[in-house]
Amino acid sequence: MIYLKKTLFTTLVILASPAILANDLVLYDMTKKEPFTVNTQYPTYIENEGVDKLFDTSLQSKYISKYSQSWVSIQFERPKRVYEYVLTSALDAPKRDPKNWVLFGSNEGESWYELDKRNNITFSTRGQSLKFQVSDSRSFSRFKLDMKQEGTTVWGDSYLQLANFALISDTHLPIADFSVSQSVTTINQPIDIYANVANDPSKLIWSIPGATLFEAGNKAKAYFSKPGSYSVSLQAINTFGEDRVIRNNVIKVLDKSKPWVGHTTPKVKVVIEDSESAGAKRLLRLFPNIAQTIDRVTRDLAPLLYKNFAELPDFEQVTFTLKWMDTIAYRAGDDTNMEIAFSSKYITEKLAGKPDEDVRYELLGVLWHELTHGYQHFPKSVGYDDAGAHAFIEGMADLIRIQAGFHKTRSPKPSLSYLGGYTNTGFFLYWLSKEHNNFAYRFNKTAIELEKWRFDKAIKHVTGKDVDLLWTEYQQSLNSM
Known about the structure:
Elements: E1 3-4, E2 11-15, E3 27-29, H1 30-33, E4 36-40, E5 63-65, E6 69-81, E7 84-88, E8 100-106, E9 113-118, E10 129-133, E11 139-148, E12 160-162, E13 164-170, E14 178-180, E15 184-186, E16 191-195, E17 203-207, E18 211-216, E19 219-224, E20 228-238, E21 241-254, E22 267-272, H2 278-286, H3 290-305, E23 317-323, E24 329-333, E25 337-343, H4 344-350, H5 356-375, H6 387-403, H7 422-433, H8 439-449, H9 455-463, H10 467-479
Parallel strand pairs: 15-21, 22-23, 23-25
Antiparallel strand pairs: 1-2, 2-17, 3-13, 4-6, 5-12, 6-11, 7-10, 7-13, 8-9, 8-11, 14-16, 16-19, 17-20, 18-19, 20-21, 24-25
Helix pairs in contact: 2-4, 3-5, 5-6, 6-7, 8-9
InterPro entries: Galactose-bd-like_sf (IPR008979), PKD_dom_sf (IPR035986), Uncharacterised_BSP (IPR007541)
Keywords: Signal
Signal peptide: 1-22
């Protein structure tokens, strides 16, 4: 057993143990390892939700077509047999899930051969990955998935959407993979990292910037002297070639006495699509350094939703776009790049008569709302078209906006239901937060704690009381004001 230890220089080379044996058949996702080109039946319908999103590393992104039926084709450089394929549902709108589909194979793009056909398939949860076997043993360089959905959403559309599409083939390469004993640790407490590499690797090369590494067989032990987020890279080599896996921010190191030391905010990219309208010029004048503003709000917002930076979702970048559009603002993107867009049209037409101080206050409130969407949890067992999920998502964003003090242009009003979202739900949640400690943190956490999430279950989980009773008490408090 030979290893090279480099304290704080990140690299550890290990001659692999014979315990890692070659399997008769090692499967891997071709779309993650092989170069390919992709095409689809119809052009991109919504910006940043094109066909390329089927093959990224995020389950938060998706491909959407304005049609109920569409095909997606993918071409590799050389023919390969597909043993399995995997489809993953998007995080919202179950009615848009593909229900029926056919997988085809071809080598020249003219003659297509049916490899697998499925009908009446249901995804039971959001972000669910379903794997399907392919019995056909022929090899092809081109594959086409022809999908059709059967449903209409609450918004009246029959769009087709899917989060991810994977094609599984076999390989002799040493497909690199690893697991960690725990994802969160404290200063100078060790983390064990286990190499899971098939196809008999002859060498493993670890790289963990900022760590002190030790080796024992196919296991590396890492120590960290400073709090922060750490990335791990593993390179595996055998006689057929090499493979590498990199996982960013896979290990979080905390100083328990200072839970936000080590928190690094994502870089901010500013895109100005409209710089000429009166609204655009006004925003740029009121916020001459919008990137700095976003960074400051992020630092203030995070402790309202989480106890320490290790709980916070990781983003490499926040992209802020100013554009002329009808929607006031929106949050999009995936789990590496959060996208926030502001409407210069709204500022031009709706805020024209307001003084600068009021406009700045309103836009900061909108920014708090949209950034909360970026960092809050989303229930995975239901889609955004569920009334309870909508109330949770929009209500939480307004709760944080209220707690930050950007609610003075709004006030709670009597209502028949707590499911209206925005200020309707937000002020109700704020009322609850005054009676229940850490309410925002605990309510946000229900999205990942409750297996079958519902709004009423989430409220009872946090407060111990039925939501209808609480809503009645809240309405009575409004009527007595």
